[in-house]
Amino acid sequence: MKSSKLSWILLAIIFLIGSIGFADRLLFGFASHNTGSYVSWGLLVAGYIYFISLSAGSFLFSSLVYVFGVKKLEKIGKLSLLTSIVCFVMAMLSIFFDLGHPFRSLLRFFLSPNFDSMMALMIFLYSAYFVLLVVEMFLASNKHFRIGPLTSPRALGFLGAIGIPLTVCCIGAEGALFAVVKARPYWNTGLFPIMFIVEALLSGGALITVLTHITSRDRKNPQHKDLMIFMGRIVLGLLCFYILLFLSEVLVVFYGKVPELIAGYRFLMFGDYALFFWIGQVLLAVLIPIIVFTFKGRSPVAVATASLLIVLGFIAVRLGIVVPAGDRKSVV
Question: How far, in Å, CA of 49 to CA of 87, rounded?
Fold first, then answer.
């Protein structure tokens, strides 16, 4: 009971701090944000790609329940959809505050879209994605909903099947938005969109694993332990796949000895923002979770802790993508 009260107090403090920032942005615009700095600008953009990845990964986890019928994950279906909606709203708020005239920008996107623009395509993909999330959440919350032969489970399966390629397109387009920027060789790689998809699955799956443990009413139940072990193995598998992709990218870059590509990674690893990489990405998001999963993978608390470290570590991963690339020192 005490831990529950402390959690609510902590959430209230975080909400209050966020509300102050929200009011400051609405009342004073960019006056106090110093968005001419790549660090201040990068915080908003990094927040956007962080939360949209969590949303996409959470939704894809829900598809394991509603599309592929994985009975062992049945309890996380509705939680995954709710998490996906909340993270999507957070992502849109982050990028909303990054726009100088957000309402004008959105209106222009819909009234005169440029379909050669990756950003314009993303707006339409996100709109369809959000509608899909809301409808699925409604159906998941109303299990006895029926229109003729169409029942909630059938509708959820159908919408989930549509949602999988839609979500992959959304998160892939997010990665492509960075990858097509030729002026930043650090981003300009064909593997970038694939990395975003894998990172979304990893971070979103880790977040759902943490929330599953936190929201469980009976953590001593053997079924809860089995569920946490199962989810921990999924997250560990995704983490290993992420490491494989990242090492492949880095090794090819350094072996190829292309100065423009090497400069970006060298600056990430040894430049002014090296802490993003070594502490956040390497230590928190990779090394400690692998050790915990390997030696304590049958402990629900340990699995939840390792997953939480991945979620927190990916904040640094996202900052490490956006902020260093904006620094002129990272470009030859």
Answer: 10
Q: Name, in order, each residue with C-beta under 8 angstroms of 48's C-beta and a sequence gap of 6 or more.
A: 91, 92, 94, 95, 98
> What whole-number distance in Å separates Cα of residue 298 and Cα of residue 110?
50
Cα(213)–Cα(300) distance, integer angstroms:
7
Contacts of 246 by beta carbon, 8 Å cutoff, 6+ apart: 195
Question: Whole-angstrom Cα distance, residue 309 to residue 288?
Answer: 8
* pLDDT per residue as tens, the chain (332 positions): 455 577 678 878 888 887 887 777 777 766 666 655 555 567 888 889 999 999 999 999 999 999 998 888 988 999 999 999 999 999 988 887 777 666 676 777 777 777 777 777 888 889 899 999 999 999 888 877 777 666 778 888 899 999 999 999 889 888 888 887 776 777 877 788 899 999 999 999 999 999 999 888 888 888 999 999 999 999 999 999 999 999 998 888 888 887 877 888 888 888 888 888 999 999 999 999 999 999 999 999 999 999 999 999 999 999 888 877 665 555 55
Tell me how many degrees the CA angle 160-165-168 measures, rounded to the nearest 5: 115
Residue 62, classified by CB atoms within 10 Å of its CB into exposed (0-12), middle (13-18) or buried (19+), is buried
Long-range contacts of the stretch 25-29 (C-beta < 8 A, 24+) = 25/97, 29/100
